[in-house]
Amino acid sequence: MTVNITQSQAGVLTLSLQRPDKKNALSLAMYKQLTEALQQAERDPAVKVVVLQGSDSCFSSGNDLQDFLSSGELNAHHPTVAFLYQLNAFTKPIVAAVAGLAIGIGTTALLHCDLVYAAPGCRFQMPFSQLGLCPEAASSLLLPQLVGYQRAAQYLLLGEAFDTDKAEAMGLVNQQVASDKLLDFVADKAHALAKLPAEAVQHSKALLRGKIKRKADKVIATELEVFGELLKSDACQQQLKGFFAPKK
């Protein structure tokens, strides 16, 4: 299994990325598992909070590019596309635990989470332009809103990596937690959140994110249209060839 799904009696659904041999790169099958789990959690009144995590040493190295490139058109039926829309639409709180790598969607997905806790020394990066591509997951909207335009340009245009200290300073991460304590810490936070009146929590999230969520839906669609065009470009194809070329 590539996504381990567990639910506590207290109402916390935990989605654990478990593909260590690929540094938790997200395959189409994993996107489908995540989407279906979020859809089920949305319908299930027993689920109060969702935890999204990798291991205590790696969150996600991003898309499994070989899998993604063989997946066809980026339409509403595409597993990656369905996950992006479901993540944006989700009405219950999501708490993320991040360690090690958080690359591409590994970073942009965090913009849709409500609480993010990270181990020291993480590497966050959105190297879309380096692959001849553009931002996704509404990051072209959400990141500037969070960190300001200039810093968003630094990380989305140049694709520069940044560490946990910078992620915390810019507000992407709530708090740093030691790697060996991270998953337990996040589980405790999620269970504390699940004890609160669910209706109040969900209404509060809707008030916090409602307006931006509607904008984000439109931005996701625009990003995907541009992303799909760039994916066909010669420049992108050359960059991807370089990515897959054997490292000397």
Automatic annotation (TrEMBL):
The record's keywords, sorted A to Z, are: Isomerase, Peroxisome
Q: Which InterPro entries match?
A: ClpP/crotonase-like_dom_sf, ECH/Chromodomain_protein, Enoyl-CoA_hydra/iso
Sorted alphabetically, which Pfam families does this protein's record hold? ECH_1
Q: Where in the cell is it found?
A: Peroxisome
GO molecular-function annotation terms? Answer: delta(3)-delta(2)-enoyl-CoA isomerase activity
- The principal localisation class reads other
Domain of life the protein comes from: Bacteria
Q: Which Gene3D superfamilies match?
A: 2-enoyl-CoA Hydratase, Chain A, domain 1
The protein's name is: Enoyl-CoA hydratase
What organism does this protein naturally occur in?
Answer: Arsukibacterium tuosuense
